[in-house]
Amino acid sequence: MTDSRGVLFVPYQDTLALLSVEDALRICEDVYGMHARGSVVWSSPASFKLDVADGFNNHWHVKSALLKDIPTTGVRLYNYYDDGVRNTVGDLGCTRYIVLSDPHSGEPMAIVDEHWSYAIRSAAAATLACKWTGPRNPKILGLVGIGTMGTNALRCLCSMYKFDEIRCTSRRPETRVAFARKWSQALGIAVAPKDSIEEVVRGADIVVGGTTSGDVVSREPWLKPGCTFISLARRELDPAGWSKMDKVVIDSWDFNMLQREFKRMVESGQFSRAQLYGEIHELVSGEKKGRERDDERILIHTTGLVSQDVALAHFLYRAALDKGLGTWLPRAGGAACAAGAGGRSAT
Fold first, then answer.
1. Is-contact 228 133, C-beta < 8 A?
2. 3-state secondary structure of 310
3. How would residue 338 be classed by pLDDT, with cut points 50, 70 and 90?
4. Pairing relation of β-strands 278-279 and 247-250?
């Protein structure tokens, strides 16, 4: 049911206070359960894009989903700049909103800034799969890339495990040194900056690849028996190494096939659906087993599901209502608007 006060706008600063790491992990897992039950309805087409390179380097992406179990429906829209060198997709300055409406009436409910919910969802939706595929008692975590995705993967994994050592690397030495200093103090764990990706990956129990690179980043021979590799973007693990993993688990085959790098890997014959062990919702529902041997090397790869973004936005909307946060915007068709419109006369 919509609120007579209008449409609630939930700004970025409010979302930080309303959504915790633990909330994000729980909600993402709940949505995988919805996928297992078949209660998520996708838009057609699944993704609408407007990409204009010449003189603009501007990219609009629009996705939507209806979640029967909540119920809610939402449209996710974001706009960013990418000229091949600078990419603002994770920056606070780019456009990122989810519009929620009542699926029974079509009336608007909320507009939610998704900078924080998108950032934590990107990590939570992948890292939670470690509940089924992670090593029994991981001690060493490797972070390849320490931007938004890498940092939030660290937050998620540290809520699930207690590590003895964390390694990190990034393009710039000063960035990884500062990151290591900050998180060593925050976590009380030794965080060691490394000069190379290989130094981070070799011997690690869990590795997270979360860079903005369009090139291959990590190599399969570097992965030790029993490790779990979490790929959050593009080509974090050499495509030639996918078929050599004991298990490959992804969030959605269909949605990954909409991504250029993944589709190219499949069409080139480097990986096939027959080689896929399963989708994460199959682990959550118990349809598929997770890790079955201590020495299995397992790859988790996600592209991101708008169903989880919509669920998180709905959680933020309800939490903002409960705590009296957000800003009310006038809604066309609302009681006050209808009264005002009725008083007008044509001239």
1. yes
2. helix
3. very low
4. parallel
Radius of gyration of the chain (CA): 21
- Whether residue 207 contacts residue 230, with contact meaning beta carbons closer than 8 Å, is answered with yes
pLDDT for position 334: 61
CA 213 distance to own-chain centroid: 17
Domains of the chain plus CATH, in order, are 7-119+306-329 (3.30.1780.10), 128-301 (3.40.50.720)
Beta strands 140-144 and 165-169 are parallel
The SS3 assignment for 111 reads: strand
Tokens representing 20 are: 């915790």
- Give the integer Cα–Cα distance in Å for 198 and 333: 59
Kindly give, in sequence order, each residue whose CB lies less than 8 Å from that of residue 6, ignoring residues fewer than 6 positions away: 328, 329, 330, 331, 334
Query: Would you list the DSSP string of 129-179?
Result: THHHHS-SS--EEEEE--SHHHHHHHHHHHTT---SEEEEE-SSHHHHHHH
Helices marked H in the chain: 12-18, 21-37, 115-127, 130-133, 148-158, 173-187, 197-201, 239-242, 253-256, 260-267, 280-285, 306-323, 335-342
Residue 3 pLDDT: 85
pLDDT confidence tier of residue 344, bands split at 50, 70 and 90: very low
